[in-house]
Amino acid sequence: MSRSRPKVFVPNQIPEQALRYLQEHCEVDYRDAEEKLSDAELIAGLQDAEGLMIYSRQKIEASILEHAPRLKVISNIAVGYDNLDLAELTKRGIMGTNTPGVLTETTADLAFSILMAAARRIAEADHFVKSGQWEGWKPSLLLGKNVYGSTLGIIGMGRIGEAVARRAKGFDMNILYYNRSRKPDAEAGLGVIYTSMDELLQKSDYVVVLVPLGPSSTRLIGEREFHLMKRDAIFINVSRGATVDEQALIRALQEGRIAGAALDVFEKEPVDKNNPLLQMRNVVTVPHIGSATLETRSKMAEKAARNLVAGLSGQIPVDLINPEVIPSASSQKKWG
């Protein structure tokens, strides 16, 4: 008798190629919808599922897992996995996976794009023209801040941090970085300079945060850190909103302790319509689109599908994030 195919639950729309791959190997309960499922809907779909493939906005905690008795693998379509309670997954023998690598360059593009947009006041200028305010050229009109030859501070020198540094080299920037461990290869290959975080904050014209969210990085940047920054510095966050004390950022901007910010992520998403950041002309805001290109999202979904199928086939997924669930997989993941 042939073994039945494993059942997997995919609660949101994924690219067609990834879906076809899953359907070739699994029995798929697929919801072709973009909206996030409620916990009740998620639990209903997990009753007999052995695999789950989700985006990182879907939180998976004990209250969900206790209703998923057959679950063996959760495949995150993201690099970050702060939405997963890894301790709970491991305790229950459930593998968790993510999708590193494939979104590195795309996210670095976005990070450098919003840095440039904030420096040269692109969003302001666009609104200025479209709202009919442009009545002629003036020497002081929308003066911005140089990027070329300035100092960039990167907090979190992982894959994306290195990709941002490569872009900064093209602008002849002086690049400082802070990481939990030094990166000699990056220092040699990219000419980046390792510093303490305090020194980085004090010297940088632009500070970009690129760390994954975890206990050690939650509210990593707060009141003290903003006080250390230059008054004409611009702060960029393309990691997770909770790596920054958002109220401290708002105060720093309101009081002129920093010159501006460019944000792809927020403490609460979607961002509250009354959030003061949305009223500030010197703040560029985009809706968590770091990896949002058709090509990259397709690659992420395909990678997630392969991770899911591998785990359900008795293999160790390439991108296993809780290797302690399998005694033979001893490597550990760290930020940077």
TrEMBL record:
Pfam families: 2-Hacid_dh, 2-Hacid_dh_C. InterPro entries: D-isomer_2-hydroxyacid_DH (IPR050223), D-isomer_2_OHA_DH_cat_dom (IPR006139), D-isomer_DH_CS1 (IPR029752), D-isomer_DH_NAD-bd (IPR006140), NAD(P)-bd_dom_sf (IPR036291). One of its GO terms (molecular function) is glyoxylate reductase (NADPH) activity. Residues 10-322 form the D-isomer specific 2-hydroxyacid dehydrogenase catalytic domain. Residues 113-290 form the D-isomer specific 2-hydroxyacid dehydrogenase NAD-binding domain. The keyword Oxidoreductase applies. PROSITE patterns: D_2_HYDROXYACID_DH_1 (PS00065). It comes from the Bacteria. Keywords: Oxidoreductase. One of its GO terms (cellular component) is cytosol. PANTHER family: 2-HYDROXYACID DEHYDROGENASE-RELATED (PTHR10996), GLYOXYLATE_HYDROXYPYRUVATE REDUCTASE B (PTHR10996:SF283). Belongs to the D-isomer specific 2-hydroxyacid dehydrogenase family. This is Glyoxylate reductase. It comes from Paenibacillus naphthalenovorans.
